[in-house]
Amino acid sequence: MTPSSRRITLPDLASAKQNRRPLTMVTAYDWPTGRLVDAAGIDCVLVGDSVAMVVAGRSSTIPATLEQMIYHGEIVARAAVRALVVVDLPFPFQHLGVRTAIEACARLLKETGCQAIKLEGTAGQADVIRGIVAAGIPVMGHVGLRPQAVHQLGGYRMQRDIEQLTADAKAAADAGAFAVVLECIPQQVAAAITRSLKVPTIGIGAGPECDGQVLVLHDLVGLSLDHVPKFVRAYADTKTSIADALLRWRQDVIERKFPGEMETLG
Ligand code: KIV
Fold first, then answer.
1. 120 is catalytic
2. What's the CA-to-centroid distance between 239 and ligand 1, angstroms?
3. Average pLDDT, consecutive stretches of 10 residues, N- to C-terminus, the chain (266 residues)
4. CB 201 less than 6 A from any atom of ligand 1
5. Is the CB of 216 under 6 A from ligand 1?
6. Structural domain range at position 245
7. Count of domains observed in the chain
8. CA 126 to chain centre
9. Is residue 38 part of a domain?
10. Which string of DSSP letters, residue by residue, matches 65-108?
């Protein structure tokens, strides 16, 4: 299917669910990856707070700041001309009350030019989602494994409390979220939640029956240097390509084979 030339909208995502067209979302944090993800016809580009781990080498997403999300979000929102650009609300703004959360989301929307924000939360954050949506800011929910709560959850592990998962996803949708990310939950639970919600679910480590799938770009292209979760499929081995190119270039310089005639200007 050829990607459409206009920007993906919230109604497009809703009709994808109705028409059972699988949705795609991939992270991007900078100009080249934003452009590549966009050009590939991916529906949503996520400027995830995973930037703290993937790009900055931190051990969790907790250190990501609002300023950093604005910095990366602005670059990606300029790079992506047709995908819906979603920027993560960093910890702990969704826990600081409706007004503070709206202020932070408004900054993300105004200063990046993105189309929506994503926030991690349980049913306890439903009022915050409702307030942000009432302010005219589209919200994507994120339930299940919430990486910002990694210490409370005891690690990056599968979430199995069916009642809580179901209540959290329903609360996000009822509060006005236009889609809900389901991270690391059993596939039968994800399937049941997907059937019960009117809005699309986007899964990561949640099996094939979600309305869409999301992956971290660096995992997808084999560029992640640390642990890669079991739910990832790498479609390229970029890490090896880069390491090999660097070794070859270094050797050429040492052997005075670079620059050659072709790369010499005069
Ligand atoms: O920050 C992120 O990249 C995410 C995805 C893993 C869904 O939240």
1. no
2. 21
3. 80 98 98 98 98 97 98 99 99 98 98 98 98 98 98 97 98 98 98 98 98 98 93 98 98 98 95
4. no
5. yes
6. 238-266
7. 2
8. 20
9. yes
10. -HHHHHHHHHHHHHH-SSSEEEEEPPTTGGGS-HHHHHHHHHHH
